[in-house]
Amino acid sequence: MSAHHSANEEHSGHTHDNVAALRSLSRRRLWQVFGLSGGFMLLEFAFGLATRSLAVLADAGHMLGDVAAISIALIASSFATKAATSEKTYGYYRAEILASSFNTLCMLGMCGFILYEAYRRLSEHVEVPGVPLIVIGIIGATTNLISMRILGADAKESLNTKAAYLEVLSDMLAALGVVVAGIIIQLTHWILIDSIVSFLIALALIPRTWNVLMECVHVLMEGTPDRIKLDELRKSVLKVDGVLNVHDLHVWTITSGLDALSGHVLVREETDGQRILNDIAECCQHDFNINHTTIQVEIAACEQKCD
After folding, report:
1. Contact 91/84 with Cβ under 8 angstroms?
2. I need a surface site. Which of 118, 151, 177, 217 has the fewest CB within 10 A?
3. How many alpha carbons lie under 13 Å from residue 184 in its C-beta half-sphere?
4. Structure confidence by residue, pLDDT tens digits, 138-171
5. What span, in angstroms and rounded, lies between the C-alpha atoms of 291 and 9?
6. What gap in Å lies between CA 181 and CA 21, rounded to an integer?
7. pLDDT exceeding 70 applies to what percent of the chain?
8. Which of 26, 23, 18, 62 is nearest to 165 (CA)?
9. Are 57 and 48 in contact (CB under 8 A)?
């Protein structure tokens, strides 16, 4: 025989409320960045058309990709706050992870395109004006630094926001590269620096973007969160008075900031099962920041009789 208990339902409710509050704050900040990026994109398009600078227009196209990525992050964040249903018992939290995966895949594709374009332009003589690059690069770097400050705190808590943060970071690096390239072109007329800077920017972005994609895949595969050491967690549960054994222990991430645990514990027959559940829930919350726990309690004497 075994008894099924769901532990820490009250804590779980508070956790979902906290995650919802975090998502609401993330959306406000994403909207702020959307406004900054969208406004700069329009300015860049106008500036590029006025100066006939293909480089500036190309960067405006890159900004368009950033605005699209932030839009996806906003849509996903809105979906994540929708209430759970009988068909989707965890709600739409995973929408954030799916959006993050899509964004990082787009980033890798963009890096590949930049590398190809930089290589292609090494064999072509394309006139690139220096002054427009410097001016638009400075404006772009300033805009993206502001956006990075807005998203910085949330990027540590949400993969969805982290993916958007990487988009802004990539554009900030690109803007700095544009400034450097513009200065060198203006002083030396060395056109190849434009391709070289673009190549270096793409190479610098690939490893970091790949790491975020692997984080998303790890969550979708319901892998144990990196911050959780399963052996240490098992030892902590075994220290709870009355627990004889722990098995079928699983920890996974529902979405950024919301981890869940399930497992079976074997306890002595005379032990208070509810007290053990409360102790385990408190241990998981206090020591490992896991608030969503589901534990199945198995009575040792019953197990022996069954054998």
Report:
1. yes
2. 217
3. 14
4. 988 898 888 888 877 666 666 667 777 777 787 7
5. 9
6. 43
7. 77
8. 26
9. yes
- 292-299 and 258-267 strand pairing: parallel
Placement of tokens 């018992």 in the chain: 89
Radius of gyration of the chain (CA): 26
Q: How many of the other CB atoms lie within 10 Å of CB of 24?
A: 12
Of 11, 3, 4, 5, nearest to 259 by C-alpha is 11
Q: How many residues does the chain have?
A: 307
CA neighbor of 158 nearest in space, from 229, 89, 103, 86:
103
> Backbone dihedral region of 159: left (phi > 0), alpha (psi from -120 to 50 degrees) or beta?
alpha
The candidate with the shortest Cα–Cα distance to 55, out of 108, 114, 111, is 114
Torsion of CA 270, 274, 280, 284, to 10 degrees: 180
